[in-house]
Sequence to fold (386 residues):
Amino acid sequence: MLEAMREKFESLFDVKPEVSAFAPGRINLIGEHTDYNGGYVFPAAIELGTYGLAVKREDKLVRLYSNNFETVGMISFDLEHLDFHKEHDWANYPKGVIKYLVEAFSEINQGFDILVEGNIPNGASLSSSASIELLTGWLVKQLFNLNLERLELIKIGQRTENQFMGVNSGIMDQFIIGMGKAEHAILLDTATLDYEYVPAKFGDYVISIMNTNKRRSLTESKYNERRSECESALSSLQQKLNIESLGELTMEQFEKHQMLIKDDVKRKRAKHAVSENERTKLAYQALSVNDFEKFGHLLNDSHASLKDDYEVTGIELDTLAETAQQVEGVLGARMTGAGFAGCAIALVHKNQIQALEDEVSNKYIEKIGYEPSFYHVGISDGVKII
Ligand code: GLA
Fold:
């Protein structure tokens, strides 16, 4: 991919690239919709990701081109005018990152040209947006020799989502894409940002990624709605409890005080946040002692909670996960990422991968009317120079 990209770069910009980088996508093993509730998440970076090449310019112009969005064409803007523009489409993600980097680093006093190309399927909830954010930061860091730490860039990526794009997401995606390590998942405590690398080894089992291929719609607004439902449930609980986030509660404490939350829907949302956080800690323990069956059960329970209490699955994700759960040799399956559309994951015996794909495809086509896709990819490092 890089060779072809270099040629394309030269034909687009008439100069050779100075620097190049790769940023992965991610899956989340378990711990869904817990990262803005002060809970644990358990994601891993994947080998699908975004590649980028860049060179500095003499003037203040920034030019961005994506091989994935050729119809959008070249996006250009001035270093001094870094506001969100709807017509800048995908380029708003790098633009947001550039804006916050310029605010933090006075060394960025010239423009630059960037070419990107990714192989993360679009809208598949594998974090193509956080991938391009971190990639942009790593390219600009190299171009200007910035003293930019990974954690600072991770926060700039999250700020881009929250303030530039208007999605109130947590820190999980940027964190794993910034800090990932090959063959490891990260158990991250989003309340403190303490984290631990955990070998993502499942014996004879592998993670299969299953894509609904459903076009995303309204994901952002529903996401923000879930987040504010949780915040409102938290403030009801705070009438009696001295807590700062739902992540501080055990299920037992939650059950004792849940009637402080008057609204049924908000109570269910909070229940998911608390129970999912407990499941994530249990899944970490199960994996530490190679109890893959237990790990699989927790994946199933996570999906059920996201379906019934958090209501972020939908028929496509349910069909994938629930069909996979019935296949022989599958220990567990659940949706991954924000939900509504995108991907599910299954923990499947390596000899049963074909059976999983056949059975899930048949059922999915019968029920939904079009095909799902499957990916088997390794666990990758976080953003890096290549
Ligand atoms: C999206 C967000 C993350 C996280 C997940 C759900 O991927 O970007 O911060 O909230 O959804 O777990």
Notes: The longest strand covers residues 43-56.
